[in-house]
Write a structure and sequence with these properties.
The complex is a heterodimer. By secondary structure, chain A is α+β, with helices and mostly antiparallel strands. Chain A contains 4 helices and 5 strands; from the N terminus they run H-E-H-H-E-E-E-H-E. Chain B starts with a helix and ends in a 12-residue tail after the last helix.
Chain lengths: 124, 189
């Protein structure tokens, strides 16, 4: 490595590698299933997401859960992560919102702005 | 928590967070003795005597940065208001057993709720945990283990969502066959 240009090349290569890594794999939906989430209806939210995804099995989405993230008033909380895109966290996701998030965000790739409580970039 | 199945999901989540690889849930309804018993057993990291005592305190939690831990206290409240109680047996390393009893006909007993929904949502979030479930009522029994719920072919060909839907269907059918019904809670008189 002899110049700034070399350094930049290394940086670009590393960033490209990171993009490949982070954009591999399937979209992931995470439901908050702590005590607060369960009490607010997270179980029904999760079942609604499973039911919607069942109708669209080509999507190949992975569903998973997490504990309380400290925003209990916004439960049920659902995070949608499509590889290569920012992670979108939705709040107060009842059954009806859950179904709409699957149709809009996962199928049509359109974030439902009204219910977003946080958007995190890939590397955050 | 509006019904018992939600409390049980919360107890199972406790097990999962205690790094359990195996969780067993048993529900027994006994109309003669007028009892409803739910037991959640895991092979997680367990608790020592001091932690066991503190676990029932709503202002005790093992999570860093949190000030409350409401799961167990809510279960205790639900059990006690229906004339029941909660027993915890736990040993470090070997795991924890939480036994919740309710008086079946007590007017303040919460409804049993949607047990298959509880099982499926737990399986969705904890695919690597082996979940066993047993129900025994006056009209029959039903038991299942998550690893034996599907044939090898189904495991190889179906995706996560299809397997979960199939699990829900099978558990609903199995429980219905055992005479299980999500009741409306205790009755007056």
């Amino acid at each position: 490595m002899k110049s700034i240009k070399d350094l930049e090349r290394v940086k670009e290569q590393a960033l490209a590698d990171m993009r490949v890594r982070s954009s591999s794999g399937s979209p992931r939906v995470t439901v908050g299933m702590g005590t607060c989430g369960i009490a607010a209806g997270a179980r029904e939210t999760m079942l609604a997401i499973i039911d919607e995804l069942k109708k669209r099995q080509k999507l190949d989405v992975t569903i998973t859960e997490t504990g309380c993230i400290g925003l209990c008033a916004k439960e049920p909380i659902v995070e949608v992560h499509i590889p290569g895109e920012p992670r979108v966290v939705y709040g107060n996701v009842d059954v009806s919102r859950a179904r709409q998030i699957v149709a809009s965000h996962l199928v049509n790739r359109k974030v439902v702005d009204d219910w977003v409580i946080n958007i995190r970039k890939e590397d955050e | 928590m509006v019904d018992i199945s939600l409390h049980l999901l919360d107890l199972m989540q406790n097990s999962a967070r205690a790094q359990a690889t195996r969780v067993v849930m048993k529900i027994t309804e006994n109309r003669e003795k007028d009892t409803l018993t739910a037991i959640v057993t895991d092979n997680g990291i367990g608790m020592d005597e001091e932690e066991k005592r503190l676990a029932l305190d709503p202002f005790y939690t093992t999570k860093k940065g949190k000030k409350v831990g409401l799961g167990l206290p809510l279960v205790v409240q639900a059990a006690r208001m229906s004339g029941g109680d909660v027993k915890i047996e736990s040993h470090p390393v070997s795991g924890t057993t939480v036994e919740v009893t309710f008086s079946l006909s007590h007017p303040d007993r919460q409804p049993l709720g949607d047990i298959p929904a509880t099982l499926v949502s737990f399986m969705a979030g904890n695919p690597d945990t082996e979940l066993s479930f047993e129900y025994a009522g006056d009209q029959g029994t039903f038991s299942m283990t998550s690893s034996q719920l599907f044939s090898q072919e189904e495991k190889e060909t179906l995706g996560q969502i299809a397997l979960l839907s199939l699990a829900e269907k099978r558990m609903r059918a199995g429980l219905a066959g055992a005479g299980f019904r999500p009741d409306g809670g205790g009755v007056i008189g």
